Amino acid sequence: DQQVKQNSPSLSVQEGRISILNCDYTNSMFDYFLWYKKYPAEGPTFLISISSIKDKNEDGRFTVFLNKSAKHLSLHIVPSQPGDSAVYFCAAWSSGTYKYIFGTGTRLKVLA
Amino acid sequence: DAGVIQSPRHEVTEMGQEVTLRCKPISGHDYLFWYRQTMMRGLELLIYFNNNVPIDDSGMPEDRFSAKMPNASFSTLKIQPSEPRDSAVYFCASSLDRALNEKLFFGSGTQLSVL
To answer: How far apart (Å, rounded) are the C-alpha atoms in residues B76 and B79?
Structure first.
């Protein structure tokens, strides 16, 4: 049973436009969420996070939105750049289990 | 800081052989995690350690998998005997205090192919 779902395996966006990556979760006990970026042949690296007490967190071109009632979060990248082409994983953490649960990832391709 | 170091980067083996993956966490990190990446399931947590003690191994697929952490700077994940369905990328990650939602730092992974 996949508790964290990224339903879009891939996404293509033109350079300069907005990229929106989505993530849904099923467990209402999750209270912290992160996004990781992964380039080929490298490990995932931390990108941005959000606590469940917030609905938005922004860091430069990256903004994460959290809708707790819908159990949905999204990552917005504006403007998208070719260097953003990577696989993006969302992850959810619960203080009850002390574990990060990752989604299956979305491959973003930013076209020059 | 050298980051999390994993070896080997690639491992190709035949079904039935023993495979040992190695990890050196970031110095000072108290938590170490083993994840497996597959297309179908994304990043799955296999097991994690706190201060060298296994805390949760509920993600270990079956008895063929075992993990050890003999000291704070070294961990192994062993598969014996290996099967083709074990083919995946295996990541090791470490972090500081778990209770503070500390983010994970990942190694570059080991690409395992079992023929």
So the answer is: 10
Q: Are B14 and B104 in contact (CB under 8 A)?
A: no
Question: How many interchain CB pairs under 8 A, A with B?
Answer: 58
Q: How confident is the model at residue A94 (pLDDT cuts 50, 70, 90)?
A: confident
Q: Which residues on chain A are in Cβ contact (under 8 Å) with B40?
A: 104
Locate the chain B residue with the closest alpha carbon to A3. Answer: B41
The mean pLDDT value for B29-50 works out to 92
Q: Say if the Cβ atoms of B108 and A89 lie within 8 Å.
A: no
Query: Is A44 in contact with B43 (Cβ distance < 8 A)?
Result: yes
**Beta carbons of A14 and A80 less than 8 angstroms apart:** yes
**Strands, DSSP E only, in B51-96?**
53-56, 65-71, 74-79, 88-95
What's chain A's average pLDDT?
Answer: 94
Query: Is residue B107 classed as helix, strand or coil in its secondary structure?
Result: coil
Interface contact A43-B39, CB threshold 8 A: no
